[in-house]
Each structure stands twice: as structure tokens, then as C-alpha cells.
């Protein structure tokens, strides 16, 4: 039977190392495969898969040309070039945790560590080919997006005793299909029934996803935390925990979870993009810039390499510079300008002049040339601005606000918020950020860069109430900045002498300030100042 399957199967091998290719050819000859094509570049593999059907692809993870094996499989999946009826096997000499996690996340059908024996290839490859053959009808429905038909097909498959060898895979596939069909109550019952028989991790993940969709958040968190403490399931568990925290609007916790997952497997672009969105909502400007930089680093020369990733990095750099200490601003601006240069090099024909105009206006403002920045923004062409991408409009709103054209800023954000609502996109991270920006721009007239300076000036003039109010505004949009937190505590102590009025609100504010300070790296002067402030807080408590 094995020999017949080998003779019938069409294989594609993507390998660029001569010795590895020679070993592969020898092994496949020994196993009886007769229809084998070899390519040494990812682009050639894409061409081959576009032109004909293969039963399996064996691909080197560390292809040296084009996007590598990782980028190849990612592109094949994204563009639906490879059907589910085609098996995909990764081979890799790199078995570092980073590489292994990256491969596992892509979910190939098998993984072989180099060097491997003929027997190892025999066992893994034939297992993949047989699975694809017996579940072909299910996979064909799934490739066409007919998930309900696929569900019917998998149910028919599961009642046949002769298919018992493949029941574990078929059960997992059924769980995936129930989720794809949004049958969450049925899926919940199914996963619970599976777990009662055998404690499969995939069933626990499926059950957790059902809990999230059914808003049973306590059950979801309990189940996911169990998975997070297991090294084998830690990565997807932190991803799911992040989704749960987003549902609960606990954005700081969501960012912490997604950051842990990103550190475990740094090549996942969508995870860095989610971290970027969460960082904006939580006003963590450093994390925002770091996440945007990682998108460029890992997305370069891949399907993710678009003008948008460079623009996002530059905008995040400007946001960070607006809120950073003066000593760090020049370095951040330098990095920002470097991403703009990279954009021009990677995409010289990109039509991004208006977006660059806004970024350059913001950079002028950063360099204390606010008059020029305002002139640039007043000269901006706003014809058909409602049709522009959301990220471009958000950056434009920020620029208008920074140069004092607050009305223009709020108008853009109000229009964006309405557009998101009309699209049924009220709960996305982007919508949350637009709402937050609109509220902050409407209630806080000054830019982040101006707030602290204005508050210090009020403090020096003895205008303690006004100083406290402005420092409080600054802390709302820069809660991770220890210098702002120190200034706010100083103003609070000077203004009140002893806590009065809303003592609960004051206590919460003090706690948030102390958390920000104690989780930051302080200079020697800041540390001394903080010790003095703590002593005064104890005296007035």
C-alpha cells in the first residue's frame, strides 16, 4: 500500500542546500516516489503550486533566498495558493525555541529536524499523505468555504469504524468547524464531551474560545490559566488570554499577555500589530514604538512589506517623542526619520505624499517650529478627506490638535467614530482608540509636549490648583511617564496639604502615580525626590 501511495503522489521539494537536496532525493527514491519536482527559491515554489496540484510540499524552513520557508508558507496560506488537501512538511536544522515556536504557529502538517533518516521521513510523510487522502472531501469543502458541508462530511466520517485510526484528527477538525460555523453552544457541549473522555489541550482551547464568545469570562480565564502554566501550551494560551482581556476592556492586562507571547515567538507579525494597537490605548508610547519597529523588522521583504508598516513606525516614533524626556527626543526623531528613508527605498513609487506631509509637520512641531508646523497643516489638501484610511486621518487629527487647530482635529475624529459605527465596528481596538482620542482631544486643549511645561509654569507662579489640574491632564495621556507622576504627586501635596474632598479618588490617583514611578527606571535625582514625596505623603495621610 505504501508503494502504491508513493507512486501516485506528486511532491514538491523546496530546498536550496545541495547536500540536503541530495539526501532528500536519495530518501524519496528509496521510498518509491517517482513524481518529484525540486525548487530552490520561494518564488519558484509559488509558481509551481500555482500551475499544478501537489499532494505534499517538503520545504526547508531556512531557505536562504526570497522570504525563507517561513515567509513562503505564510504567503501560501494568506493567498490560498496551497489547498488543505496538500500536505506541508517543514524541515529545519535550526531547532532553537524561537524557530520551533514560529514553525508550530504556522501549523504545518509535520516538522522534521535535520538531519533525519529515511525511516523518519517514511513515517512522517506517509502519515501526512494518508491523512490528506482520507479527509479529502472535508478539506475540499473547507477550501471552498463551505464549512457547514464540511461539518456534515466530518460527522459522516466519524460514524465509520474503519476510520478509527483518524478519529483524533477528525474530532479536532470537527471542533474547528463548529467554531468556524459560530455554533458556540454546540461547540461547548462537544469540547466538554471530548475532555470528559481525554484531556486534549486542543479541546481545552476550543472550550475556552466558546466561553469567551458566550461571555462566560470567569470560566474562560480559569481554563486558559491552566494552559498558560504548561510550557507546551503557554504561547496560544497567552494569545487567548489577551483576547479575553480585550473583551473585558482590561487593555493593560491584554498588552501584558500579548507581550509575553511576542517574546516567546517574535516572528508573528499580527501579534506585534495587536500589541501596537493595545499600546496606543494604554498610552504606552515606548511599547507602541517597539511593536511598530518589530513589524518592520520581521515584515521586511515579506507579504507584510507595505508602505503602511513604515508609516506606522514613523508615527509611533513621533508619538513617543512627543511624550519622552527631552534628553531622549533627538534619538527617537532620528529613528523616526530612518523609517521614512526606509519607506522611500522599499516603496519609491508609493503615493504617500500627503501622509508624509503630516508626519513632517509633526516633526517640525517636535523641533519647536510650531509656526511652520501650523502653516503646513493649514496648507493640507482636505478634499475628500472622509475617504482616506483611518490611520492617516488619526495622524492628521493629532497634528491639527498639536498646532492648536482643535476644531479640525475633533471633526475628523467624530467623523471617523461615526464611520466605524456605520460599518458595525464599534468594539474593535481601532474603534476604542478613536473614541479615546476624540474624548482626550476635546477635553485637553494642549499637546502632550506642552502640558508638563504649562503645569510647571503654573506651579512656579504659585497657581497650585491650576498646576494640579494640568499635571492631572498630562498624567491621563502619559501615565507611564515617571516624571509626570512625580510632578503630579508634588502638586497634589502642595495643593492640598492634607487629603480632602474626594479622598477615595485621591487615594486611587496616588496609587496609580506610585505604580508608574515604582515600575520605571528612575534617575538618582528622581529617586531622592520620590523618597521625599513618600515621607510627605505619610505625614499628611
From TrEMBL:
<protein>
    <submittedName>
        <fullName>Response regulator</fullName>
    </submittedName>
</protein>
<dbReference type="InterPro" id="IPR011006">
    <property type="entry name" value="CheY-like_superfamily"/>
</dbReference>
<feature type="repeat" description="TPR">
    <location>
        <begin position="448"/>
        <end position="481"/>
    </location>
</feature>
<keyword id="KW-0802">TPR repeat</keyword>
<dbReference type="Pfam" id="PF00072">
    <property type="entry name" value="Response_reg"/>
</dbReference>
<dbReference type="InterPro" id="IPR011990">
    <property type="entry name" value="TPR-like_helical_dom_sf"/>
</dbReference>
<dbReference type="GO" id="GO:0000160">
    <property type="term" value="P:phosphorelay signal transduction system"/>
</dbReference>
<dbReference type="InterPro" id="IPR052048">
    <property type="entry name" value="ST_Response_Regulator"/>
</dbReference>
<dbReference type="InterPro" id="IPR001789">
    <property type="entry name" value="Sig_transdc_resp-reg_receiver"/>
</dbReference>
<dbReference type="InterPro" id="IPR019734">
    <property type="entry name" value="TPR_rpt"/>
</dbReference>
<feature type="domain" description="Response regulatory">
    <location>
        <begin position="10"/>
        <end position="129"/>
    </location>
</feature>
Amino acid at each position: 500500500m505504501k508503494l502504491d501511495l508513493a507512486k501516485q503522489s506528486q511532491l514538491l521539494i523546496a530546498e536550496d542546500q545541495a547536500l540536503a537536496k541530495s539526501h532528500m532525493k536519495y530518501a524519496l527514491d528509496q521510498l518509491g516516489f517517482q513524481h518529484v519536482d525540486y525548487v530552490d527559491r520561494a518564488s519558484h515554489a509559488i509558481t509551481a503550486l500555482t500551475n499544478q496540484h501537489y499532494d505534499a510540499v517538503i520545504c526547508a524552513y531556512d531557505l536562504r533566498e526570497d522570504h525563507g520557508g517561513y515567509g513562503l508558507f505564510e504567503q501560501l496560506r494568506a493567498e490560498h495558493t496551497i489547498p488543505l488537501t496538500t500536505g506541508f512538511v517543514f524541515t529545519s536544522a535550526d531547532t532553537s525555541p524561537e524557530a520551533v515556536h514560529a514553525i508550530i504557529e504556522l501549523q504545518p502538517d509535520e516538522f522534521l529536524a535535520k538531519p533525519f533518516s529515511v525511516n523518519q521521513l517514511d513515517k512522517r510523510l506517509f502519515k501526512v499523505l494518508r491523512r490528506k487522502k482520507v479527509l479529502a472531501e472535508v478539506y475540499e469543502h473547507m477550501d471552498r468555504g463551505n464549512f457547514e458541508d464540511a461539518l456534515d462530511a466530518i460527522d459522516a466520517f466519524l460514524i465509520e469504524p474503519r476510520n478509527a485510526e483518524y478519529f483524533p484528527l477528525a474530532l479536532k477538525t470537527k471542533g474547528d468547524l463548529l467554531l468556524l460555523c459560530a455554533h458556540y453552544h454546540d461547540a461547548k457541549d462537544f469540547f466538554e464531551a471530548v475532555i470528559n473522555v481525554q484531556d486534549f489541550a486542543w479541546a481545552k482551547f476550543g472550550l475556552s474560545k466558546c466561553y469567551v464568545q458566550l461571555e462566560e469570562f470567569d470560566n474562560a480565564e480559569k481554563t486558559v490559566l491552566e494552559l498558560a502554566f504548561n510550557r507546551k501550551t503557554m504561547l496560544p494560551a497567552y494569545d487567548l488570554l489577551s483576547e479575553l482581556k480585550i473583551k473585558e476592556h482590561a487593555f493593560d492586562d491584554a498588552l501584558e499577555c500579548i507581550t509575553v507571547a511576542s517574546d516567546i515567538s517574535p516572528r508573528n507579525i499580527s501579534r506585534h500589530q495587536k500589541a501596537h494597537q493595545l499600546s496606543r490605548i494604554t498610552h504606552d508610547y515606548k511599547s507602541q514604538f517597539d511593536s511598530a519597529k518589530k513589524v518592520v523588522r520581521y515584515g521586511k521583504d515579506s507579504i507584510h512589506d507595505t508602505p503602511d508598516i513604515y508609516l506606522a513606525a514613523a508615527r509611533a516614533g513621533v508619538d513617543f517623542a512627543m511624550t519622552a524626556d527631552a534628553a531622549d527626543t533627538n534619538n527617537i526623531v532620528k529613528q523616526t526619520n530612518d523609517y521614512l528613508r526606509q519607506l522611500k527605498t522599499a516603496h519609491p513609487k508609493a503615493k504617500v505624499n500627503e501622509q508624509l506631509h503630516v508626519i513632517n509637520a509633526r516633526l517640525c512641531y517636535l523641533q519647536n517650529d510650531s509656526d511652520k508646523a501650523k502653516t503646513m497643516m493649514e496648507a493640507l489638501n482636505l478634499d475628500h478627506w472622509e475617504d482616506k484610511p483611518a490611520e492617516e486621518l488619526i495622524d492628521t487629527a493629532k497634528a491639527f490638535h498639536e498646532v492648536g487647530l482643535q476644531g479640525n482635529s475633533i471633526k475628523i475624529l467624530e467623523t471617523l467614530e461615526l464611520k466605524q459605527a456605520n460599518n458595525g465596528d464599534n468594539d474593535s481596538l481601532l474603534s476604542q482608540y478613536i473614541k479615546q482620542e476624540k474624548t482626550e482631544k476635546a477635553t485637553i486643549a494642549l499637546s502632550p509636549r506642552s502640558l508638563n511645561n504649562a503645569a510647571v509654569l503654573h506651579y512656579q507662579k504659585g497657581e497650585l490648583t491650576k498646576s494640579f489640574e494640568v499635571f492631572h491632564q498630562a498624567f491621563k495621556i502619559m501615565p507611564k511617564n515617571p516624571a509626570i507622576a512625580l510632578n503630579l504627586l508634588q502638586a497634589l501635596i502642595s495643593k492640598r496639604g492634607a487629603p480632602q474632598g474626594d479622598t477615595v479618588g485621591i487615594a486611587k490617583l496616588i496609587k496609580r502615580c506610585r505604580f508608574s514611578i515604582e515600575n520605571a527606571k528612575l534617575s538618582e535625582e528622581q529617586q531622592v525626590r520620590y523618597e521625599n514625596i513618600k515621607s510627605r505623603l505619610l505625614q499628611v495621610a
